UniProtKB/TrEMBL annotation, chain A:
<comment type="similarity">
    <text>Belongs to the eukaryotic/archaeal PrmC-related family.</text>
</comment>
<dbReference type="InterPro" id="IPR002052">
    <property type="entry name" value="DNA_methylase_N6_adenine_CS"/>
</dbReference>
<dbReference type="GO" id="GO:0032259">
    <property type="term" value="P:methylation"/>
</dbReference>
<dbReference type="InterPro" id="IPR004557">
    <property type="entry name" value="PrmC-related"/>
</dbReference>
<keyword id="KW-0949">S-adenosyl-L-methionine</keyword>
<keyword id="KW-0808">Transferase</keyword>
<keyword id="KW-0489">Methyltransferase</keyword>
<dbReference type="GO" id="GO:0003676">
    <property type="term" value="F:nucleic acid binding"/>
</dbReference>
<dbReference type="InterPro" id="IPR052190">
    <property type="entry name" value="Euk-Arch_PrmC-MTase"/>
</dbReference>
Automatic annotation (TrEMBL), chain B:
<comment type="similarity">
    <text>Belongs to the TRM112 family.</text>
</comment>
<dbReference type="GO" id="GO:0030488">
    <property type="term" value="P:tRNA methylation"/>
</dbReference>
<dbReference type="InterPro" id="IPR039127">
    <property type="entry name" value="Trm112"/>
</dbReference>
<comment type="subunit">
    <text>Interacts with TRM9.</text>
</comment>
<dbReference type="GO" id="GO:0070476">
    <property type="term" value="P:rRNA (guanine-N7)-methylation"/>
</dbReference>
<dbReference type="GO" id="GO:0046982">
    <property type="term" value="F:protein heterodimerization activity"/>
</dbReference>
<dbReference type="InterPro" id="IPR005651">
    <property type="entry name" value="Trm112-like"/>
</dbReference>
<protein>
    <submittedName>
        <fullName>Trm112p-domain-containing protein</fullName>
    </submittedName>
</protein>
<dbReference type="Pfam" id="PF03966">
    <property type="entry name" value="Trm112p"/>
</dbReference>
Length: 218, 123
């Protein structure tokens, strides 16, 4: 058993502005735990979490892989960046956090170089407008507002993730049934040659959540 | 906290700024030193990813001159200790990073680099 990260330093005031770990977060932790052996065998040097929020998931990955990897995190929300950093410290994984969209400033230097990429995106279907506004406000709404089919934001990262993934690298994505999972999988295969599996899925209230794992088809 | 290991991986990402956009230049920095656990396997694994000259220059900009100008062929313990310190223990808490090409300024405050761009600057 890998312990769930200690989040006792975060208060309800933090969760006014930053996404509080929920069923989606915990399903991703469970998927990483289930894949722990496979992840260790990668001998990862560089990991990246896009949209790290509270920092819970990267801290957990740090407990699986230990101090032989670098843990980069990004978030558009500056409060989330601070929370991620503090959660790393609290759980003895140093998280190198950058306030930016997706992996923007890393593309130039980390082409085909990231071994583990994680993204629990804003996946809730909303108006397009609402998703765009949430992105520019850089506050807690940006945690869920996903636009058309909940895919407006995720799609922007799916278009570039392959450029970052190392030859044996793994990319984990949280998705909702309404996001049209077979369509995501087919598109990633056809456009980018990334094959994928469902690692776990679970119903939580009205949401049917999936964890997809992508890798290059060799 | 912008550690020099992260700095070595960050480039300007303003739309159209695709050459000479690395390394970003530190300005007006406040630095803190914090111990990190030494791990030679990590360092050896990471060395191939380092842009050496950028690292040496960045270290100088924050007042550290312990690294040789060329990456040595023999990775002895003394060298790995210096490298460990430069990559992982020097934290830039305040200041900014400027793109050498388009001169965009990315501020660092409370240890977090702000690399958000306005909508029209995103590629
Ligand atoms: C559903 S929350 C997940 C938070 C955390 N990873 C977790 O699993 O609990 C989505 C996170 O992505 C961030 N986010 C949304 N759009 C983003 C973008 N374009 N680039 C980077 N982060 C983004 C949000 O601010 C939020 O912290
Ligand atoms: Zn630039």
């Amino acid at each position: 058993m890998i312990p769930t990260p200690n989040l006792s330093h975060l208060t309800s005031a933090d969760y006014d502005s930053v996404y509080e770990p929920a069923e989606d977060t915990y399903l991703l932790l469970d998927a990483l735990e289930q894949d722990a052996e496979h992840l260790r065998e990668l001998h990862a040097t560089v990991c990246l979490e896009v949209g790290s929020g509270s920092g819970c998931v990267s801290s957990f990955l740090g407990s699986i892989l230990g101090s032989t990897a670098l843990y980069l995190c990004t978030d558009i929300n500056p409060h989330a960046c601070i929370c991620s950093f503090r959660t790393g410290l609290q759980n003895k994984t140093f998280l190198d956090v950058v306030n930016t969209t997706f992996a923007g400033p890393f593309h130039h230097r980390l082409k085909n170089a990231i071994d583990v990429i994680l993204f629990n995106p804003p996946y809730v279907p909303t108006d397009r407008e609402e998703a765009l506004n949430a992105q520019s406000k850089r506050y807690v709404e940006g945690s869920w507002a996903g636009g058309k089919d909940g895919m407006d934001i995720t799609d922007r990262f799916l278009d570039v993730v392959k450029e970052l993934l190392s030859p044996r690298g793994l990319f984990y994505l949280v998705a909702l049934k309404q996001n049209d999972i077979p369509n995501i999988q087919r598109r990633m295969q056809d456009k980018f040659g990334l094959s994928s599996q469902t690692v776990l899925h679970r119903r939580a209230g009205s949401e049917h959540l999936f964890i997809l794992r992508f890798q290059r088809t060799s | 906290m912008v550690r020099l290991i992260t700095h070595n991986l960050l480039a300007c990402h303003v739309k159209g700024c695709t050459s000479n956009n690395f390394p970003l230049e530190f300005k007006d920095v406040q630095v803190e030193l914090r111990d990190a656990e030494f791990n030679s396997d990590f360092l050896r694994g990471f060395i191939p990813k380092i842009e050496w000259k950028a690292l040496v220059d960045a270290a100088r900009q924050v007042g550290n001159t312990s690294l040789p100008l060329e990456l040595p062929e023999m990775l002895d313990d003394d060298f790995l200790k210096s490298l460990h310190h430069v990559l992982l223990e020097i934290h830039v808490e305040e200041g900014s990073m400027t793109c050498p090409n388009c001169h965009h300024v990315y501020p660092i405050s409370n240890g977090i680099p702000n690399m958000l761009l306005a909508e029209h600057e995103i590629g």
